[in-house]
Design goal:
It contains 23 helices and no strands. It is mainly alpha-helical and 604 residues long. The longest helix is centred in the last third of the chain and has 38 residues.
């Protein structure tokens, strides 16, 4: 000690304490000599304790980190571990507290000088700096704490650092709310909404400026709390955080302040969504060169922005509330607007058809087609929104339980997409039925056509198609003008819908006819012509729509009843039959040259 080699002296004291415990009561030792030595060592120990305390206090008062930790590490060697841990913890906390106090005072000065210029007050920066100070204090001192005081020391040290955040961090959040009158803003925005009135009491743009700052505060806070919980977990027995420790953090003053801030964020985000979506709907118009109205892009842009902003907060409850509100926005007001606009549009659009083939449609045609396009694009956008938000959420959250809860909330957007799709399908069916009504004269010709052909008639039809080409040309002339007015997807779906209806009617008609072998050949050519010509009207495929008619043609071209067995059951190969055994026999009975008793004996 005279040489000020306090580390070496502390090692001697530590060894003495250990030996005193192990051999002090052995009978073969000279008890008087041992007592004298013990008295001398105890005096040295007391003197060294006093020196270490004084040196540590002096270093702490002078903010001399090197010396403070030098002497702090000696406490456990002197048998006063708990006192040393308390001293080191208090010192580090005082440093963190001092820096936080200085930053908060500087912030307060800025607020006093900034007047109404809210942007000059960097609440996020001050809170983030406090988190960094706590994080650095824990990370930098962790090896020393564990090495000198044991693993359990880190647990109490982290808890003490977080207690400082309960004081300083809470003060920053409360000051932010007070300075910006957040509670009053929430009350004002909650009193009125554009979904029920022409304008809200608060400009959504002003709300959004607060939202971004609140989001950053919440995001940084969630990152900090996750760090603290992870550190507590790593220092806990079995590296598993106990419910008590987790509750102490999540139920502390700072966490309560963050929860309150998040509740403000949710209320303001909902107001922002409601106001901006309501405005997008009210001012919606058909932009020049666009097939949809402006509200479609505007509404989904708003919802995507709000959804991503909520996910970035890192708070699951915030995300669930925001996503739920976004889904409700789509399935209520937005859906109602779509339904209102699309009602009766199919009839009005058909009324805009050109007077003659090749002429332009009426000027209002684009306006009448837009609501149908809105539905089609909305279904696509809703599913795309669900997918993109899910991908982003999976990047932010790694816990399976959090991921599952978010996916469940996002499924509501999938339901909205399904609703829009069904509404689009319904309006498309109305349009399809209107188009088919103009094809009735051709169907009348088909119903009168006979497939019991002579050689002469069959030769004539090889040159002049009897009805298939005319049917497709009629459909083409009826729908072609719609192609530039509808989205590519919607137009293709229209052709698909028409193909469904055409094949369904032709299927029913053919089941009422009679065929000879030449008639079967002719029908096969008619089906091929239909497929070829209709395929030219769409970017998709219509071949699958004609599967039943193609299979009917196969049966009608069999040379005998038994020949069906070569392509049935295990012999079907890649052919997937759409006809039941009963329907196969029904089609066979249409051949005038197949005997009923042969068909009846057929086992399928």
């Amino acid at each position: 000690m005279d040489e000020q080699d306090y580390e070496r002296a502390a090692q001697y004291v530590s060894k003495f304490i250990e030996l005193d415990s192990d051999v002090g009561n052995l009978p073969f030792l000279d008890t008087k000599q041992l007592s004298d030595q013990k008295t001398s060592m105890m005096a040295s120990r007391a003197r060294l304790e006093e020196i270490v305390r004084e040196k540590f206090k002096e270093a702490a008062n002078n903010n001399n980190h090197t010396e403070a930790f030098r002497f702090g590490k000696l406490y456990p060697l002197l048998g006063i571990r708990d006192e040393g841990l308390q001293a080191v913890t208090s010192y580090v906390r005082s440093v963190v507290s001092g820096r936080a106090r200085t930053q908060f005072e500087a912030l307060s000065d800025e607020l006093g000088n900034a007047g109404n210029e809210r942007q000059k007050a960097d609440f996020v920066g001050v809170l983030t700096a406090h988190f960094k100070d706590i994080g650095a204090a824990i990370s930098e001192n962790e090896p020393m704490l564990i090495g000198s005081f044991g693993n359990e020391a880190l647990l109490s040290f982290v808890a003490a650092m977080h207690e400082e955040c309960d004081v300083r961090g809470t003060a920053v959040i409360k000051r932010f709310c007070e300075h910006n009158s957040i509670e009053k803003l929430v009350k004002d925005t909650g009193s009125r909404s554009s979904m029920h009135a022409q304008t809200g009491d608060v400009d959504p743009r002003e709300v959004e400026s607060y939202l971004q700052e609140i989001l950053l505060l919440c995001e940084r806070s969630e990152e900090y709390l996750s760090f603290i919980l992870a550190k507590i977990g790593s220092a806990s027995p079995g590296q598993v955080i106990s419910p008590k420790e987790a509750g102490r953090v999540r139920g502390g003053a700072f966490s309560v302040a963050v929860k309150e801030l998040i509740s403000y964020y949710i209320a303001l985000e909902e107001y922002y969504m409601e106001e901006t979506v309501g405005t997008a709907i009210r001012i919606s118009e058909a932009a020049e060169g666009s097939l949809t109205t402006s509200m479609v892009d505007d509404v989904f842009y708003i919802l995507k922005k709000c959804g991503r902003r909520a996910i970035a907060s890192g708070n699951v409850q915030c995300i669930l509330a925001t996503l739920s509100f976004a889904a409700n926005t789509l399935t209520n007001k937005y859906k109602e607007k779509l339904a209102q606009e699309v009602r009766g549009r199919a009839t009005k659009l058909l009324a805009d058809a050109p007077a003659e083939y090749g002429l332009p449609p009426a000027e209002e045609a684009g306006m009448h087609a837009a609501p149908m396009n809105d539905l089609d694009v909305s279904a696509e956008y809703a599913e795309k929104l669900r997918r993109e938000l899910e991908e982003f959420a999976m990047e932010v959250f790694s816990m399976p339980t959090d991921q599952d809860r978010i996916k469940s909330a996002l499924s509501e957007l999938g339901k909205a997409a399904s609703d829009f799709s069904h509404m689009s399908k319904s309006s498309l069916e109305q349009l399809s039925m209107g188009i088919l009504s103009k094809v009735k004269p051709v169907f009348a010709e088909v119903s009168q056509f006979s497939y019991e052909l002579s050689e002469e008639a069959y030769g004539e039809y090889e040159v002049n198609d009897p009805w298939a080409v005319k049917l497709v040309e009629t459909v083409e002339s009826t729908v072609e003008w719609l192609q530039p007015l509808l989205t590519t997807t919607l137009y293709d779906r229209l052709i698909q819908s028409l193909a469904d209806s055409l094949t369904s009617r032709l299927d029913a008609m053919m089941m009422q006819k009679r065929f000879n072998p030449l008639g079967g050949l002719q029908f096969d050519k008619d089906v091929r012509n239909l497929i070829g010509r209709l395929s030219g009207l769409t970017q998709g495929t219509v071949r699958d729509k004609f599967s039943r008619l193609q299979q009917i043609a196969i049966i009608l071209n069999l040379e005998s009843v038994q020949e069906i067995l070569d392509s049935w059951g295990d012999n079907a190969g890649s052919l997937s039959w759409r006809l039941s055994p009963a329907e196969v026999k029904k089609v066979m009975s249409l051949r005038v040259d197949f005997r009923p008793e042969d068909i009846a004996r057929l086992s399928l």
